[in-house]
Amino acid sequence: MTTTIIITFCVLLLIAYVFDLTSSKTKIPSVILLLVLGWAVRQLALFLDIHLPDFSPILPVLGTVGLILIVLEGSLELELNKSKFGLIRKSFFGALIPMIALAFLLAFAFRYFGNFGLKDSLTNAIPFCVISSAIAIPSVRNLSSHNKEFVIYESSLSDILGVLLFNFLALNETIDRFSFGNFALQLVIITVVSLIATIGLSFLLSKIEHHIKFVPIILLVVLIYAVSKTFHLPGLIFILLFGLSIGNLDELKRFKWLEKFKPDELNKEVSKFKELTIEAAFLIRALFFLLFGYLIETSEVLNADTFIWALAIVFLIFSFRTIQLKLSKLPLHPLLFVAPRGLITILLFLSIEPTHTISLVNKSLIIQVIILTALVMMFGLMANKPQKND
Fold first, then answer.
1. What radius of gyration, in Å, describes the C-alpha atoms of the chain?
2. Which domain holds residue 28?
3. Is residue 390 part of a domain?
4. Which of 149, 245, 233, 159 is nearest to 199 (CA)?
């Protein structure tokens, strides 16, 4: 039995690797293929009457680790200099404004049609408003460098802002000036923690001479995130600041204290660390979507009761995105289509306390919105002409 499980996992992950290799040619997002593959494995297990354990408790763990690695991978890829500030500003407002507008519109719709409280409606609406960096970043490899950078910034910031907004609503029973003051204090604390932790981790990265050095760094990053989450601090800000800092050492050379870290030698170590992060992110992301696909019930995908809501939500997502891109003076094609929902949507949905769930938002609606936005992205990128790097 053990050997069979090992063989199965190896084969599935190798197939996932083939999906990743061919996605740039086929333009089919690997997440769709992974979900289908996971679902097919479940159907085969049912057909052969193979009884497998309940894997659902593993999903949030894989999702959290995957989110950390994906945001870290994205932040390590980003260049931070004066020429990028305009792009960062557009990405920030492009992630924030449509998120808030869509969240309130969906919340009022849930409140109107289901007579739910505004706070609970907002909490349930936010998962639909976050662009999934886990799907968006791997899907834009063939876009121009400018468009690719925008997607990386926008989707990473969308993850962070979505988690911040969700936690703010979920952790505060009442929204008043005290809750806003507490939220501001949390931002200050995590910024200070991020700076101290980044310096400490950079020091370890430059000083560890043992042949195993990158895995402990990744474990410490996950540990710091988990501890910060325990204290209700926005840990993704730490991940973003850490990745941006060590990924842009050349821009930080003007600070004399950085010479203690021997930045030229540290850069070589960062390159190796980046390679390990990319491979680890692929592994966790593949496992997450395979497992999520395995846990999908066919009836949930074909649920007619939620399909109209799913279509309406997807229509609103791309309507707001059109307005956002127009106001930001960014090209509609192909950026309009790159607004998938995915890993972070699932994680936030699973994080809603049972007492704050609403009947209109369920697993069927989440799955349908994820699949529809991924299909829109797939057909949009298929219709897009190959772009040259800027």
1. 21
2. 2-383
3. no
4. 245
